[in-house]
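Human: Here is a favour to ask of a fellow structure person. Comparing notes only helps if you start from a blank page. I am asking you to supply a protein in sequence and structure-token form. Write it directly below this note and I will take it from there.

Assistant:
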Amino acid sequence: MDKYGYRFSFGPWNIHEGADPFGPAVRPSRTFADKLTVYKELGFDLVQLHDDDAVPNLDELSPAQIRQTARTLKQTLADLGLSAEFVAPRLWEHPMTIDGAYTSNDPQARAYAIERSKKAADIAQELGTDLMVLWLAREGTYLRETKDAGRAAHQLLEAINTLLAYDANLRIAIEPKPNEPMDLAYIPTMGHALALGFQADDPKRVGVLMETAHSLLAGLDPADEISFAMAFGKLWSVHLNDQNGLKFDQDRSFGAINLRTAFNQVRVLDENRFWEVGVVGMDVKALRTQPADLATKHLRNSLSMFLRLVELSRSLDQAAVAALIAARDYEELDWLILSHLIGRAA
């Protein structure tokens, strides 16, 4: 926890080998255990986990083995001064889920996705977190005619209700994304995710996770997406990063592309006291050209940027802002913000 009360997390996939959608790995792999050792030295408190990050090869293990492996990891994390933020079922890499998971045309694939998600809930329980993140990666289609989008919405809702009934303490945060890997995603924006959650059998246990790049890829402003979710008390986590245009999901360091967009995300999080309800996650990846021994600086930079923007948000002359808004002098307000960001008196 930093001096402002925030806690920070990232996932082991954020220390990665440098592969991108168009090329192979360029850095050697680091073991999961080795990655865990750098969390505290970088200033992070919690670990984001996929189910098979926590319990490798979980489809080959018995329920008792899954729970025991998760308990062992919980102790490992505790020994390092860490804890788990959430567990996410990895439903997009298994051969059964080529055509989707919860919304697959194959009933056996849908059944597999539900059972895999129940295992993730068990792992979360053993790790001491009540939060499951659902990135609905393959819940969509490449050809609209191959699936019924209305039916898919009910399949997604059925899956959520099944998980809520399976674990009475589980909270589910839906992470929307408009595309990639599926060309046409069924839950592309925060509004879609919230609408789905409000229809759940226990809507108070369904919220959302906002990722900067996903909002930008949808042509939306991440700060507005944050504000919309927080207006209903539904923003339970964030994945902050940056995005250089409408390309593949780049996961650039937070604030590296658009400093003002980053500032506004921090501003709305801070003004709404997000530190009281959620963890600030950094879903960022090192540049492909970064040498292996330097491939954690993107995490350091992103956390430092967040904290610096908190300082700038809290030191902004709010009386001057209010006066300019009242006078409708938006050009002057624009200059006030820009001057504040570049460290120059307006």
User: Anything to note?
Assistant: The CA atoms of residues 6 and 274 lie 8 Å apart. The chain has one domain: 8-315.
